[in-house]
Write a structure and sequence with these properties.
There is one protein chain. The chain has 13 helices and 13 strands. The protein is α+β, with helices and mostly antiparallel strands and 334 residues long. It has three domains: 120 residues; 73 residues, Orthogonal Bundle (Arc Repressor Mutant, subunit A), CATH 1.10.10.10; 126 residues, no CATH class. Strand 8 and strand 9 form a beta hairpin. The protein is globular. The two termini are 33 Å apart.
Length: 334
């Protein structure tokens, strides 16, 4: 990591929890020799609103590290995480065997911190391992990206071409997941998007839209009206990254419908030549925000587990995309 901000971004993108630097001054209850302190960059951090200390070092003498950590633990009453940028397998093995929390460019090991996340786990245990349904996810992303904070059952049914019963279930699901509030006026209901949406909670509860990936001939794309740029092709439109390879997203049910109508379209599972183009098959229609470009939230979901953690260029672009989504969510708070 070049700097502490890159490390924070890496941890946030990897763990999908709230992590930030804190301005809190550390209270050392016992003195630590300057010769030891000078070996470390010491940062105060907040992980899911829990105060922690990050110690950055280039030191790889594990015995020294363990002794130093004991001193810091005796002096500080909050969790400590060690950061060693380049870590050998033998050092990693030693740290794990001794239960020492650490992060590096290759690994993250935070076993002892889990006991400090009780509030975080309690907050989400009601919906642990649960994800929003396809329709509920589509409605929520549409409301957020169009900056629309109010909707009703009739309008939603028309907008997403579903029955009133289906849209009613989806809207009530969003109420249960605490994204919408509902107001009853006579026999009708109005649903309102909440002004504070936790971005990390959002990414935990939304599904990756990509079901599968196939290849078809470039000319066969003309058979599909409902397609949008996605993956790194779309990321280059939102962030400072260049990608010349075109990749498209098409809803799987629509893709299958067109294939059945025209059996001249051949589907390939690999890119055998330059005339083939990649198509991601999605759970839902990717044309939520724009008919030609995937929306930022769906795009982030499709890429967050796909980007190589060592690809600085792609990770910087993903950070830009993340901040763009944060900006939209912050708009509601303004």
């Amino acid at each position: 990591m070049k700097n502490i901000n890159e490390l924070i971004s890496y941890l946030k993108d990897t763990l999908h929890i709230s992590i930030s630097l804190s301005n809190n001054k550390l209270n050392f209850t016992k003195s630590i020799p300057l010769a030891i302190k000078s070996n470390y960059d010491i940062y105060s951090m907040r992980i899911q609103n829990i105060d922690t200390v990050l110690l950055r070092t280039k030191e790889e003498d594990v015995r020294s590290i363990k002794k130093h950590l004991n001193l810091f633990e005796q002096s500080l009453s909050i969790p400590i995480v060690l950061h060693v940028e380049h870590i050998s397998n033998s050092t990693k093995k030693y740290l794990i065997e001794n239960g020492i929390p650490f992060v590096s460019e290759q690994s993250i090991y935070l076993p002892q911190l889990l006991i400090h996340f009780n509030n975080f786990k309690e907050k989400y245990k009601k919906i642990k391992n649960k994800k929003l349904s396809k329709l509920a996810q589509t409605i929520l992303i549409s409301l957020i990206m169009h900056k629309q904070n109010e909707i009703n059952i009739n309008d939603s049914a028309i907008m997403f071409n579903v029955t009133k019963m289906s849209t009613s279930r989806a809207l009530n699901e969003l109420v249960d997941f605490e994204y919408l509030e509902v107001a009853q006026t006579g026999r009708s209901k109005e649903y309102f998007l909440k002004y504070t949406i936790d971005i990390e909670k959002l990414f935990i509860e939304l599904k990756n839209p990509v079901i599968d990936s196939v290849y078809i001939k470039f000319d066969d794309l003309n058979y599909f009206d409902k397609k949008t740029l996605t993956s790194f092709s779309a990321l280059s439109r939102y962030a400072n990254i260049t990608d010349n390879q075109l990749i498209y997203a098409i809803e799987k049910s629509y893709f299958n419908k067109i294939i059945k109508k025209n059996n001249r379209i051949t589907i390939y599972d690999k890119e055998y030549d330059n005339n083939l183009i990649q198509v991601e098959l999605w759970r839902y229609n990717p044309q939520i925000l724009d008919k030609d470009l995937t929306d930022p939230i769906s795009l982030y979901l499709s890429l967050k587990d796909k980007v190589d953690i060592y690809d600085t260029r792609a990770n910087d672009a993903m950070t830009e995309l993340y901040k763009r989504i944060e900006g939209v969510l912050n708009w509601y708070r303004a």
